[in-house]
Design a protein that fits this description.
2 domains; alpha/beta
């Protein structure tokens, strides 16, 4: 795995450092508009944890028209929220992008289905709406694992109306979002989390360029450690400050949606089981996903995949799930 500076730098990671007025800001780029899935970072900033760690952090929202990878590679962001699959693809293309940590121990992606469906294998022959990213990541696995066909796959438009109108339809969703809309409208549904059926990925993985890692490795570790505390507070403590800052960035986000999302993240143990280290990654899970996505030729199988991530930074994490 990628080394981030050796024993001397490792000792620096543990040493407190007072914030300095001229300390450069670490710029985090999210993968969507501000929401509970980013809550730990907003909480850490609102609680002053980044400032206390000596690394000021700014948060910039992503969105449907934002090319996060382009901004990261162009030096307009230092860390971005992405995915394991994106990191593997970057390594295969020899892009200088590395996964440095993660938000969640499992993906929050799944399929919202009607009440008569209780397992993924029951969806064979049913129309399923998925987005472009899903077609390139979990869809080949669904085809291979459950015998689905491309004829089933339609375009997901981030709208639950087709689900309401078609009793056979399933839609790709996050456990925190469309199920909330369905609940608010008293629409019955079941939810099938992909990770529960074998598609094991970390969720909201944090990516940085090798240049940022080389220049600011100390700051990266301080950022990850403060973020882990922020996540623990946001899901298991008082989330008031984090929610307030989310709404500042995204005024359309309601208190009810945020509360539902936090409850959903707790329910699926998104941060890990009680007592597990928040933000941790390991070689075994990366190897398992690599084997999964290369089995059907979805991703090129080359030794380069091992450059997709490093466990150097997460080795300094210690905050555990409450």
């Amino acid at each position: 795995m990628l080394a981030a500076g050796g024993a001397m730098m490792a000792t620096m990671f543990m040493r407190p450092r007072p914030a300095a007025a001229d300390q450069p800001t670490l710029r985090l780029l999210t993968n969507w508009y501000a929401q509970a899935e980013h809550g730990g970072f907003y909480q850490a900033r609102a609680d002053g944890l980044y400032a206390q760690a000596g690394v000021p952090v700014s948060i910039r929202m992503g969105g449907p028209q934002v090319n996060n990878m382009q901004l990261l590679l162009g030096g307009q962001a230092d860390i971005m929220i992405g995915s394991m699959e994106l990191a593997l693809l970057a390594a295969a293309k020899d892009l200088p992008v590395v996964a440095i940590g993660t938000s969640f121990q499992k993906s929050v992606t799944g399929l919202m289905v009607h009440k008569d469906i209780t397992a993924l294998d029951q969806l064979k022959g049913h129309p399923i709406l998925i987005n472009t990213e899903g077609r390139a990541t979990f869809w080949p696995w669904l085809r291979a694992r459950f015998g689905f066909s491309d004829a089933q796959a339609g375009v997901y438009t981030y709208n639950i109306q087709p689900f309401v109108m078609n009793p056979r339809l399933a839609i790709q969703t996050f456990v925190t979002s469309e199920p909330f809309a369905a609940t608010q409208k008293n629409i019955p549904f079941n939810y099938l989390l992909l990770s529960d059926s074998g598609y094991r990925t970390y969720g909201n993985v944090l990516l940085a360029t090798r240049d940022v890692i080389a220049r600011r490795g100390d700051d990266v570790t301080r950022f990850l450690r403060a973020s882990a505390v922020g996540w623990n507070t946001y899901l298991y403590g008082d989330a008031t400050a984090g929610d307030r800052d989310i709404v500042v960035d995204n005024p359309s986000m309601s208190a009810a949606q945020l509360a539902y999302s936090r409850d959903a993240l707790r329910r699926i143990s998104a941060l890990g089981e009680k007592g597990s280290v928040i933000g941790m990654m390991d070689d075994a899970q990366w190897a398992a996903l690599h084997d999964l996505v290369t089995a059907d030729g979805q991703f090129p199988d080359t030794p380069a995949w091992r450059r997709a991530y490093t466990t150097e930074f997460v080795s300094h994490l210690s905050t555990t799930v409450a």
